[in-house]
Amino acid sequence: MRSLTSIFITQLLVITQRKKKLADPAVFDKRVQDLLARGEEPYLLDYKKFTVDVEKSSLNGMDYYILRSRKKHNANKMMYFHGGGFISQPIEQHWKLLNKIVEDTGTETWVPVYPKIPFHDATYAYPLLIALYKVLAESTGDGRIAFMGDSAGGGIVLGMAEQIKALAIKQPSELIMISPFLDAAMTSPETKEIEPKDAMLGIYGTQRCGELWAGDIDLKDPLISPLYGDITGLGNMTIFTGTYDLINPDTHRLLEKSKELQIPIDFNEIEGMQHVYPLLPIPEAKKAIQKMETILTRG
């Protein structure tokens, strides 16, 4: 049964019309045009409530942040890919989540502020992310590496793992995906049935984000839609999803694909949960975060 807090938060999302940015074509298209008119702007981290150390650095023109605990040390490291439809920068909820995880587990966490649409696409962003990952991998030693991400970033988790498999570098041991965007083509027919229940995502804007991220590449190319990629030989996969999430059906398609290939997935689905529910201030999120922290501290 859903908590009363989760029901309240869903109603709050509806009242504040959070979904309009992605559901209303006029609103979404205006946002893109406004971004293009202003030009690409640097990301400024304005979150002030960190209880961990935060270091900013840059590689090949891409900024990234490293979060380190002041009290604990974990040999494992994590790279976190934030969500936001490939168009939005990290927000407060991302930093709150990461601050808690780093403080609780001592897991050094790298957060790339990867290039965004409408100025860049996946073919520009992925080489930068892979170059940064190589630096992280070289610095990890005997520790394990985890990839974690939400929404668009959850899709990048799988997309990165599929590409890294072909490279002679250390592979991530854990792939933690929160409401991952796995199919930019959005071919699952169930999405139309779920859209009225999702208080965050709309089909129009989500599709347009995927198209802009794809650029000139086919939407079903694994670089854009990792659901269609080769998932054999990857790290342990864990998924968190809710049934009121527009892109939930694609997590089931990945689950079915994994079963056919006899690849286990730790599939965590909660009835009635919204998109990226582990980032929301609800009891259900606390349980999900506890599980993430357990995964990150595995030996």
Distance between the termini: 34 Å
Task: Kindly provide the radius of gyration, computed on alpha-carbon positions and rounded to a whole number of angstroms.
Answer: 18 Å
Number of strands: 8
Kindly state the percentage of residues in helix: 25-40%
Write the layout of secondary structure elements.
Blueprint: H1 4-15, H2 20-23, H3 25-38, E1 53-59, E2 62-68, E3 77-81, H4 92-105, E4 108-112, H5 122-140, E5 145-150, H6 152-164, E6 174-178, H7 191-194, H8 203-214, E7 236-242, H9 248-260, E8 265-270, H10 283-296
Parallel strand pairs: 3-4, 3-5, 5-6, 6-7, 7-8
Antiparallel strand pairs: 1-2, 2-4
Structure notes:
This protein has 299 residues and is an alpha/beta fold. Helix content is 40%, strand content 16%. The chain is built from ten helices and eight strands. It has helices spanning 4-15, 20-23, 25-38, 92-105, 122-140, 152-164, 191-194, 203-214, 248-260, 283-296; strands at residues 53-59, 62-68, 77-81, 108-112, 145-150, 174-178, 236-242, 265-270. Strands 1-2-4-3-5-6-7-8 form an eight-stranded mixed sheet, sandwiched between helices. A hairpin with a 2-residue loop joins strand 1 and strand 2. Helix 4 packs across helix 10. The longest helix has 19 residues, at 122-140. It is globular.
